[in-house]
Inverse folding.
């Protein structure tokens, strides 16, 4: 078997890792606990992932916290999730500042309560000059919606004469996405054993590597992150420039 590269090799560390946090509810159910406990343990796993990203020198970390489809969940569970989000935003700012973490939120904020939107804006503004890990949380987020919204904005600019049809390109389109100033993910990790993308970063993941883990998100450790980075480092990324045969 080919040796796995060391984490000390500079090219082995991805610049941007995105994670689909899957399995909080099933983790709780397996232990006969309320789903809310699973979500709380999931938030603790996010903290570990952010710390691990900093230790490994990963510049960007994006986590899929709540999808646009998750609004279909039972109202009681949604209320628990929103309350947990409030707690996180209110209580993590000090630690973010101490560790130089910059927080950004992507997704449809119109569905969030006004006090949550205000908290998001407060934390984003407070951390915008930080130079450590760039943490992005996708909330009320859907990749298809993001693409549609980008298309709508480009169409409006074209109709207003601000851009010509001939100027529309992949790079221009990317500038109209919510991730405009964030590099595309090099690696996406999904927990819980599921092997699908679930409407997450559809445009941005065109050449992303994937690692799927057979464990629920609350059990995710820094070693899991390190193992995923080692797996990433063992792969050859061709970007379509070489024959796959």
């Amino acid at each position: 078997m080919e040796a796995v590269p060391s984490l000390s090799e500079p090219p082995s560390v991805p610049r941007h890792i995105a994670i689909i946090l899957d399995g909080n509810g099933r983790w709780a159910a397996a232990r006969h606990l309320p789903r809310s406990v699973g979500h709380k343990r999931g938030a603790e796993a996010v903290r570990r992932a952010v710390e691990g990203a900093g230790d490994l020198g990963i510049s960007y970390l994006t986590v899929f916290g709540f999808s646009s489809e998750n609004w279909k969940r039972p109202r009681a569970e949604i209320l628990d999730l929103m309350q947990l989000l409030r707690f996180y935003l209110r209580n993590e700012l000090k630690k973010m500042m101490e560790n130089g973490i910059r927080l950004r939120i992507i997704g449809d904020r119109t569905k969030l309560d006004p006090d949550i939107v205000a908290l998001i804006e407060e934390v984003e503004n407070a951390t915008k000059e930080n130079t450590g890990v760039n943490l992005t949380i996708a909330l009320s987020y859907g990749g298809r919606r993001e693409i549609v919204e980008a298309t709508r904005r480009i169409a409006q600019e074209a109709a207003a004469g601000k851009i010509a049809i001939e100027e529309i390109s992949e790079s221009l389109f990317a500038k109209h996405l919510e991730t405009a100033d964030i590099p595309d993910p090099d690696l996406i990790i999904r927990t819980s054993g599921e092997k699908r993308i679930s409407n997450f970063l559809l445009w941005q993941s065109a050449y992303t590597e994937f690692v799927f883990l057979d464990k629920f998100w609350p059990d995710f450790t820094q070693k899991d992150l390190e193992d995923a980075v080692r797996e990433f480092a063992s792969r050859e990324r061709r970007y379509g420039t070489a024959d796959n045969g």
